[in-house]
Write a structure and sequence with these properties.
This protein is mainly β. It contains two helices and 23 strands. The strands form four sheets. The protein has a 16-stranded antiparallel barrel. A two-stranded antiparallel ribbon has the order 10-13. Strands 11-12 form a two-stranded antiparallel sheet. A hairpin with a 4-residue loop joins strand 2 and strand 3. The longest helix is centred in the N-terminal third of the chain and has 15 residues. The protein starts with a helix and ends with a strand. The relative contact order is 0.12.
Length: 369
């Protein structure tokens, strides 16, 4: 007990004597279809964020929080925050974190709390820079207890660079095991502020074994130009008969609740190019995602749902971003980072309610003290 008290006192003393940084961020976005619906409704979305970090050689402490506000759908406003402790050195890093989301009463069924821990080990073998990473998380949905789950992750990534040609080859794989704490479910949740209810169904929630593997090649073309291509495969091992939400549509930040990547199969292709222009970086990307959802049926039209067919999507995304590489100095006490971003998304699906398109334009300002 004395050793534990001494350790706790030593950690708190280290934190108290460490360097602190504070960050205030403001993001403004216009999105003509933030809910990814075939019946789009545009919104201006404001993101107000605050964070701080504590730096010392033993352990780091950090907090980040953001409030998201929609001008035409204020009932969908929500607050997200995360608190973490971690340690980082040349060979490994590890940490724990607590993450939570809070919404207004009409959409509190989207709220969750997540407790997680991770460990990453880095090493070099045969000129390949490698890392092994592992993580465990518990996610709790207070109003949708059937979604409560444990997720275990184990992955590897290897990076081999060729200085003579300016080429980097990256190979990686990740195994996920998701276990739902409830064996069955049959829950009704509100899907709109007018009080409509969707019945989610009554199925057995089976564990999910999921593997993601990827190959990436990055090439320096000119002194200030680079390009990259990545292929990713996602596969589910065995059968899946897990929880499916068949109701409301989610914001980009909420998408994993409805389009959980661990419940999807398929291939993805990414094409990216980066151009340095003086002190700015211009990056363009085109992404094609073929996604199958074995646990989901389809909407044959706007009202009728068919559990006997599997939802299949082809998603195309174009992204263009401009950011300043170095911070703008504000006296001797602060730095300002800024970025602009445009995104176009086109989702084609055999499920009527998942055929949608959308454009978003955003400006982000980040003030660091």
């Amino acid at each position: 007990m004395k050793k534990l008290i001494t350790l706790i006192f030593f950690l708190f003393a280290s934190i108290a004597n460490a360097q602190w940084t504070f960050d205030i961020s403001i993001g403004q976005e216009y999105n003509d279809n933030p809910f990814r619906s075939p019946i789009p409704e545009s919104n201006f979305i404001s993101d107000y964020g605050f964070s701080f970090e504590n730096y010392n050689e033993i352990i780091q402490l950090g907090y980040s929080g953001s409030y998201f506000a929609l001008d035409k759908n204020p009932e969908r406003n929500f607050f997200w925050h995360q608190l973490g402790l971690w340690h980082n050195n040349e060979l490994n890093n590890f940490g724990v974190y607590l993450e939570q989301r809070y919404a207004k009463s009409d959409f509190q069924f989207l709220d969750y709390s997540e407790l997680g821990g991770y460990f990453n080990q880095r090493f070099e073998l045969a000129n390949i820079f490698s890392s092994v990473h592992s993580a465990i998380t518990y996610t709790n949905f207070p109003l949708i207890s059937s979604l409560n789950n444990w997720t275990f992750t184990l992955g590897y990534e290897g990076n081999r660079g060729f200085e003579a040609t300016g080429t980097s080859l990256i190979l990686g794989a990740k195994y996920n095991y998701k276990f739902y704490t409830y064996e069955t479910y049959g829950i009704a949740v509100p899907t709109a502020s007018d009080g409509e209810i969707y019945l989610i169904g009554n199925k057995e929630a089976t564990p999910i074994n999921h593997i993601t593997s990827y190959f990436r090649i990055a090439q320096s073309i000119l002194s200030k130009t680079g390009a990259a291509f990545q292929f990713t495969n996602r596969s589910i091992l065995g059968d899946i008969n897990s929880v499916f939400l068949s109701g409301d549509f989610a914001l980009w930040e909420e998408s994993e609740i409805f389009d959980d990547p661990i419940k999807t199969e398929g291939n993805s292709f990414a094409f990216e190019i980066t151009q340095l222009i003086d002190d700015f970086s211009l990056k363009g990307g085109y992404y094609i995602n073929y996604r199958n959802f074995p646990s989901q049926g389809i909407y044959s039209d706007l009202e009728n749902f068919d559990f006997n067919q599997m939802r299949s999507d082809k998603q195309s995304i174009f992204n263009l971003s401009l950011s300043k590489n170095s911070s703008i100095k504000i006296g001797d006490f602060a730095e300002l980072n800024l970025s602009l971003n445009y995104r176009y998304i086109d989702n084609k699906s055999n499920s009527t309610w998942f055929n949608y398109k959308g454009n978003s334009y955003s400006l982000n300002l980040d003030l660091i003290f």
